[in-house]
Amino acid sequence: MKLNKLNAAVLAGLAGYSLSMTVATSAMAEEAAEENVEKIAVVGARGAPRSVTSSPVPVDVLTADDINGVASSDMNDIMMTLVPSYTLSRQPISDGGTFIRPASLRGLPTDKTLVLVNGKRRHRAALVQIGGSGTQGPDLATIPAAALGSVEVLRDGAAAQYGSDAIAGVINFQLKNNAEGGSISLDLGQYFEGDGDQYTISGNKGFSLGDDGFLSISAEVTESDATLRGEEYCTGSACVDPNDARFLTGSSFDTSLAGYDEDAFIAGLPDANIGYGDVVQPWGQPNYSGEKVFINAGYALSTDMELYSFANYSQSEGDGSFFYRYPGNGTIENLREIDGTLYSPLMKFPGGFTPRFFGDITDYSFAAGIKGMAGDLGYDLSGRYGYNEISYTLSNTINPSLGSASPTTFQPGDLSNDELQFQADFTYDLAEYVFAFGLSYMEESYEIKEGEVASYEAGPHSVPDPYGLCSRVDTGYGLATDEQVATAIANGLDCSDEDDPVFAVVGVGSNGFPGYSPQSAGTYERDSYAIYGDVSGDLTEDLFAQAAIRYEDYSDMGSELVYKIAGIYQLTEDVAVRSSFGTGFRAPTPGQQGTTNISTRLPNGFPVATGLFPAGSDVAQALGAKELVPETSTNFTLGLTAELDSLTLTIDYYRILLEDRFNAISVLDVSSDPTAGADYDRYLALVEAGVSGAGSIGGVNYFQNLFDTVTEGVDVVATYNMESELGDTVFTVSMNYGTQEFDSDPDMLVNGDPIFNAEAQFDFENGTPSLRGVFSVKHTMDDLSVTARVNYFGSYENSDGGSSVSDIQEFDPEYMFDLEGTYFINETLSVSLGARNLFDNYPDASTLPGDTCCGRIYRSDSIVDWQGGYYYMKLNASF
C-alpha cells in the first residue's frame, strides 16, 4: 500500500473535515495545489477520511473547480452534468414539479438518496410529486455553488451508516470554511434561440473570528427568462394555428358558445396565455428568480474542542402554464344563469385561456454543534432545524362552477415541511480499528394549508339545474322564483331539451389546480429515533474492512434493523478490489402519507380532473388501497480501483433489490353514470367521503407499495493527468450503465382492475437511457485554461396506449458538447467564454399521440435536454 501517499491523503482529509482555521490563498494557488492533492472523501467510512481509490465503497469527489466549471446556477443541473448516474428532467407542466424538479441517482428517485450538508441531514422540500414515484426529497436548487468547497457522492446503499433514505447513496455538500479572502462572479448567458436570458451574481467572503474562528458567507442572486420550444396549439379537437387547414375547427371546438365572436376570439388568442410567448400553449423552461445565502462558521475553544454552525436562507419564484382551454373543451361551456341568460367563460377570456401557475418557495435551516476529542474518544453533538414552504398562486383561470361570479386569480394554498433533529456521534480509537457509535432523535411535520374558499368551492354549476328552474327543487344554491322561471323561459330555457345549458355540469375549483379544501388540509407529524454502531480498520496490511448496524424506530411506521459490511483488498501496490453488502430501510414521509391533490390534466386536449388521495384515507381505502409500509432494500457492489502512474480508475458493479417500492397507481376512471360499473362505484366512494365536486372528477389514484424492483448497473470513473511543455492536461471519463426491472408481478388487480397499466410498466423499464457518459478534457497553459466536455445519452424507448402498448417510439442516442475557455488576466481577475450544447443538438421529436398533443414537439419529461445551445460569459474576481 502506498503509505506515504495515503498518510498525506488522510492528513489532508482531516484538515478539510474539521472546521480548520486555515487561511485561504489566492484562487490560482488553490487550483495549483488542487492538482497535486489526492481527492479525499469523508463519507463512506467512519474515522479518518480516505482517498477515492482506497475507499471500500464508490465515492466521487467534486471540487469547487469542477462545480464552477459547469455553466449553470441550478445545483441539479450541475450534478447531472458531472455525475452520469444522477439524472433529472425539465417538466414544464407538472404542477409543483415545475418549480422543484425531481431527480434520481442510479435510477432511483430523490427520496432514496440521503442529502447531507457538512455531514448533517438536509431537510426535505415541501413538494410531493403527485405522479410516478411520488418522491419527496431535498431541493438541491436552494444550495448555491458559491458556498461549496466540495461535493462527495457516495454511490452505494448506506442506510446502516447514515440512516433511512440512503438506499441509492449519499450526497454530502461540504461548505467553504475560509477565514479570509473571497470571490465574486457575474455569469451572463442566452440560448441560441435568442430567449432564456440568464444572469447570476454570486460571491463568497471569509472573515476571521478572533484568532481561532472563521465565518464564511456565500450568496447568489439569479434570474432566468422562459424559453419556448413548441409550436401553436393544433389538435384534432381544436386548432388555433392559422397556417393549418384545421384552423378554428375540430371535433370539440365549439363556435356557438355565448360570447363567441370570431374576430374577438382571434384577437384574443395572443392573450390566452398571459405571460410570455406568441403561442397559447408554451413549452419550455419557466421564468425563475432566486436569492440564496449560506453561512458557515466555526470557532476553536481549544486544541481539542470546537464550536460550529451553518445556516441558509433562500427565496425563489417560478412560473409555468397548464394546458390551453379552447371553446367547448368541457371548461369553456355555455351555462344558464338564474334569469335564463347564457354565460360562457369566453366573456372573461375572448380567446380562451391558459391557466398560469406561480410558486413562491421559502427555505431556511440552522445547524449548530460542538465536537472534539476527549482522550481517544471523539465526539460530535449537534442539533438542526430545517423548513421549506411552497406557496401557490393561480391566475388567468376560473372556477368554472361559480359561473360568471368566478374570480380569475386564486390562492389555492401552501405546503410546508419542517424537521428538527438532535444527534450525538462518537468515535473511539482502538489503535488498529475505529469504533463509531451514536444516536439521533428527529421530529418531522408536513402541513397542507387551506386555500381561499373560491379556489375549492363547489359553485352552482357543479350540479345540473342548480336553481331548480326545471325541477323546482332547491339544490342549495337558491330556488328560483316563479317570476325568475318565467324570465328564464323567455330567455330561451327549454326544460324538455336534455342538452339545454341549464343541465350543464362543469368542474369545481380553480381550473388547473383546485385549491386545498378543509377536508384535504391538515398536518401530518411523526418522530423517530435511531442507534447505530460502526467498526472499521485494517484487518491485515492489505485488507481494510468495515461493518455497521443501525436500529431505527418510527412512531408511524414501526422499527427496522439494517446492517452493512464492506471491504477493500489491495491486490498490488496499485490495484485493489472492493465490495459491499447491506440492507436498507425507508419509511414513507409524512408528506407522502398525507398529500391530497386534485389537478386538471389534458392528456389529449380534453380536461380530466384527477384526484390523488392518501392511501390511508376513507376514499382510497374504499377504492382498494392498502396502508403504506416501509420500503426495504438489499444492496451489493463489487468494484476495482487502480492508481497506475497518472491514471486513476474505478469500476463498480451494483445491484439494488428494492421491495415494497413506493409508487402511484395508474389513474382509475370515475363516472357518475349509474351504468358505468366499477367507474360508477368509485364515484359513489367519492360522494360518500364528501369529496367536493365529486361529479366533475374523472379519474383517481393513490400511492401504494406497488411492486419489487431490481436496479443494477456499472459505474466507470477514470482520470488521467498528462504534463508537457505545452501545459497540463486532465482527461476524465465517467460512465453509467443501469437498468431497472420488475422483481414482482406489477399486474396487480384491485376490485378487478389493473392498477399499473401496460404503458406504465413499459416506460418504467425502458423510458430513460440505460447508458450515460460524461467525457471531459481540461488543458491549462500559462494564463489560459480550456475545458471541453461531451455529455452522451444512450437510446431509450417510450410507449403509448394505456392498458395495452400499442405504439413504441425509439429515441436515438444524443451527444451534447460543451466548450469553455478561461483567461486569467492577473492573480485576481479572470474571464470565461463558453457554450453549452455547442452544436445546438436536440433529442428526437416525439411522434406518439400522447407526447405530441397541444403544441409539444419534444417529449417534455425527457432527461435529454431539449432547450438547445446556450452561450455565456463569466467574470470572476478572487481576493
Protein architecture, described:
A hairpin with a 4-residue loop joins strand 24 (558-570) and strand 25 (575-586). Helix content is 11%, strand content 44%. It has a 22-stranded antiparallel beta barrel. The protein is built from 13 helices and 42 strands. The longest helix has 15 residues, at 3-17. The two termini are 40 Å apart.
CATH topology: Maltoporin, Chain A
| Number of self-contained structural domains | 1
Helix vs. strand class: mainly beta
CATH architecture: Beta Barrel
Q: In which range does the helix fraction lie?
A: 10-25%
Spans of at least 5 consecutive residues whose pLDDT stays below 50 are 1-37
Total number of beta strands: 42
Features:
Maltoporin, Chain A, mainly beta, 22-stranded antiparallel barrel, 11% helix, globular, 13 helices, five-stranded mixed sheet, 879 residues
Structure at a glance:
With 879 residues, the protein is mostly beta strands.
Write the layout of secondary structure elements.
Layout: H1 3-17, H2 27-36, E1 40-41, E2 50-51, E3 59-63, H3 64-68, H4 75-82, E4 86-88, E5 103-105, E6 108-109, E7 113-117, E8 120-121, E9 148-154, H5 159-162, E10 169-175, E11 182-191, E12 198-209, E13 213-224, H6 262-268, E14 288-302, E15 305-321, E16 335-336, E17 342-343, E18 356-374, E19 377-395, E20 409-430, E21 433-449, H7 453-456, H8 482-490, E22 522-538, E23 543-554, E24 558-570, E25 575-586, H9 590-594, E26 597-601, E27 608-612, H10 618-623, E28 631-644, E29 647-664, E30 668-669, H11 678-688, E31 697-701, E32 703-724, E33 727-742, E34 749-750, E35 753-754, H12 758-766, E36 771-781, E37 784-793, E38 796-800, E39 807-811, E40 814-824, E41 829-836, H13 849-852, E42 870-878
Parallel strand pairs: 7-10, 27-31
Antiparallel strand pairs: 1-2, 3-9, 4-5, 5-6, 7-8, 9-10, 11-12, 11-42, 12-13, 13-14, 14-15, 15-18, 16-17, 18-19, 19-20, 20-21, 21-22, 22-23, 23-24, 24-25, 25-28, 26-27, 28-29, 29-32, 30-31, 32-33, 33-36, 34-35, 36-37, 37-40, 38-39, 40-41, 41-42
